[in-house]
## 1
Amino acid sequence: VGTVYQLVITISILVSQILGLESVLGTEALWPVLLALTVVPGIFQLATLPLCPESPKYLLLSKGQEIEAQRSLTWLRGTIEVHDEMDDMRSEYEAMKMLPKVTLKDMFMNSMLRIPLFIAMMVMICQQLSGINAVMFFSTKIFKMAKLDDMDAQYATLGMGSINVLMTVVSLVLVERAGRKTLLLIGFSGMCLTCVLLTICLAYVNSAAWVSHFSIFLVIFFVVMFATGPGSIPWFLVSELFNQSARPAATSLAVAVNWTANFIVGIAFLPLQVRCVSK
């Protein structure tokens, strides 16, 4: 289920890449329309979220509202046969009563929480500092560096987005069979090797035609390695490292670190690329 989050992200990226084509909305005249379309999901959520119930676990574990939790669970499951799941939640609720509440300070001061928090934050940092969003943000520019013309570079970006969706679907199956650690090691190792080879190829892209073609393959393979594990696993790994009492604080910290690293990559890539080229 945790991998579905990343799947929705990759599908959204693909949709934005399609809309951003010059033949669709990616022109100087139409880009304001493309930008304005981002308000549509927000309006949809504002209209539909008030109709949705609160999380059953939140109602029972955090608020102690058992009846409301059962109503919410019944609505979500579409059946009144939720007794077994409610029993599991009651057992978790009773166990939580024995645990102290965890604050953000406790996450750093308690050694039992500090180590899994460090793991969760490092996985999030590695996901973003791997450079995946630099590839996503500037993929068309990278393909142009590999000697593709404007339209071919845009369609190559579209193909890359499609492969990203496909491999994320594949990871839905692999994540339970191969394990989290194995997929993370394979994914990050493959991305590291690909980055080294891509750097070499882009430095000698004018030497032969096959070098530019191989560079395009490497960019796509980089995305394949990311989608294999590093793209989806960090999002649900956090919840697996902590119990219910520590999970909200841990998730908040890990996600904050993830988006901070994302922001740094987004603003740093082009200046670094310009300085490296100038040297």
## 2
Amino acid sequence: MAKIFIVEDDPKLAAHLDKIIRKYEHDTFLVETFDNILEPFQQFSPDLVMLDINLPSFDG
């Protein structure tokens, strides 16, 4: 089981990704912005990061 950190500003898409990934029994952690993600990232310690390449406050 992998731990996947998802950074996605579209709540519907984030929820859809979360649902699909959890279907395969992986753990997910969702954030909507790139601001202040360092602490949750370090606590969750993900195996994979899915980063939206077109975030309003950060160019992925």
## 3
Amino acid sequence: MYLTSSRGPSRRVRSTTTVHAENAWSKPASREIFDAARSETKQWVEVTEASHFDMYDLYPFVDEASEAIRGFFAEKL
């Protein structure tokens, strides 16, 4: 991932948040990507009892994920 600033492109990502469903088929890949991220600040959010598709549009899963993202952005941006 490349970020640009007035000093040019940077390969460093300062903050990373990963939100996924507890029962998602993609959980191992999500964890691998999260662990490999070279971020100064990392947040791992696991939405309990949710499946991959539950995260698209089912209450309360979407609300929980959205709140985690909102809180992370409010604190880190």
